[in-house]
Amino acid sequence: MDPVRLYTREELKEAAVHDLITTRVDSRMISYLAKAADTVIPCDKNMMPAQTRKYNSPASLPTPPTTPELRAVQPEDPVLPTVEQFIRQLVRSSNVQAATLMPTLIYLQRLKNKLQPMSRGLRCTSHRIFLACLILAAKYVNDISPKNKHWARYTNIEGPNYQFGFCTSEVNLMEKQLLQLLDFDLRFSEDDLYNTWQDYLEPMRQKMEDENRRMYFAARHENAIRTAAPQYSPRYYTQYDRYARASSGSVSPPALSYASSSASSTSSRPSSRATTPTSVESVEYTAMYTPSHYGSYEYPTTTTSKGHRKRLLPYEITPEQAMVHSIENRNTKIPRASRGGVFSRVFGSAMMAR
Q1: Which of 97, 118, 235, 240 counts the most CB atoms within 10 A of its CB?
Q2: Against a cut of 0.90, is the pTM above it?
Q3: What residue ranges define each of the domains in the chain, with the CATH number in brackets?
Q4: pLDDT for 247-284, tens place per residue?
């Protein structure tokens, strides 16, 4: 799934349907189909069809198909397998895939909507209905599907207490009856697939939605970290700072003081005047970078450069550099020559004019 956006509900429904098509048929899907087949029509467990007449060819089948004769279940009659056992046998024998079982459920639901509320079936009606729906789905969805004689062979189940199966003529009759009940309309859409399998697909859709939201917000968080500007606090240590620490014996930087006594005491030291750099631009400096809290960025902890530094603007200069500037200005300031006041300048000019 694409993590850069959140999928809509319709897109998640479509993704769930496509995922189900490629899903392997399991016991959960077989149980879901068996419950749906059992609810199509109420069945009388004490009634079963009489001996079915065998037809030589599909053309000899009666039109419209006739209802088989009924009789009561006798104690000597074999036990009937459950619908779930019957479906499992068909899946195992025919190797049917989920893409064929999905429209089978659609035809079961359509048949349920078309039957009268008072309709009643025999004990094997649910088996017959499911087999007919499966045959029609296999022929409609697949280019090549088994013939009815093969489907009749797939229905044969032998167990310790029962022996069950349909003959080819019965399979042909089931198929023809179901086609007439469905008005020969086997078309279906993707919405039909989701609406019919909604209870089965809802956990899959919810899982996809949770995964999509997790991937989306994880991608947004990672993108925000990648595009965020690095945040660090540069601190500049000049040669004057190193001298101040060495002279004071403290590792903390000297405090900036604006008192005249402090300035005069600092400038009166010979060693201070000897080690004070002549220009801020030519001083050797070391830049210390404190990395930000983003772990994906790595910065050099210490860089040393020699040469001329760019002249800083007043709002860019640090307190330590401001102190260096003030010391330089005091050391290089030319004292103003005394000229004796106004009278000296006037009389001095007159004497020079003579």
Answers
A1: 240
A2: no
A3: 9-209 (1.10.472.10), 235-332 (no CATH)
A4: 555 445 555 444 444 444 444 444 444 444 444 444 44
